[in-house]
Fold this sequence. Notes:
Helices cover about 55% and strands about 10% of the residues. By secondary structure, the protein is of the alpha/beta class.
Amino acid sequence: MKPTIIVVEDELLIAMDIKGILEDDGFNVIIDVVTVEKAIEMIDLHQPSLVLIDINLNQNKDGVDLGRHLLEKDSIPFIYITSYSDKATIDRVNETRPYGFLVKPFRSHDIKTCVSLVLNNYKHRKIDIIRQETPLSTDIPFRIKQTINYINDNISEKIEISKLAEITQWKNEHFIRVFTKHLGVTPYQYVLIRKIDKAKVMLAETTVPIIQIAFELGFQSHGNFCNAFKKITKDTPEIYRKRVAAFKFL
Length: 250
């Protein structure tokens, strides 16, 4: 069965263009969805693998409202498509944590690359403190969230578990136990996952040598980095970079 993608776009020519591009890649693409209400109805009916959302729908509710709905459900990845890239728009978009962002006008390989990477990343997604079914409202999750913020702000540094425990004002053993309970992975595993996530972005979007990426992210050696990368992604950094580059020329 072909994976389904729903395109929420009120400009028919653009929607048809996207449909043709993605159908060539083997997707079943649903268009003629121009309102948030219709989009929610179609998403519930078809349970797509991905939703592409135009931000400006010329309605009372725009694409960001749909993004908020999908963030709350957190069961389907989504990508914004827009001609707006100003700071105010980006700030609104960031609040909904999309998996991708395409700026009009775009080329066919931009769509193909973005869709491929988003579907791959979603399939291998890791725990995100903001993407929790239950809001983190108790004191314990709040302390955990503080450590997550610290990790994200210092991802290029060597992060000691003792430092994270210090932030929560708990002893190391208690911190590790509570963190693992709420996140499903140990603090060490979470840090490693986040470092590999950062490495994937650098491999995809820059030409920085792999050995430099390894040291910039605080790995002890090139070999240590490659082993960790392959353990999490099933690819070596070299293969991952080549695979991403290949998509750009489709």
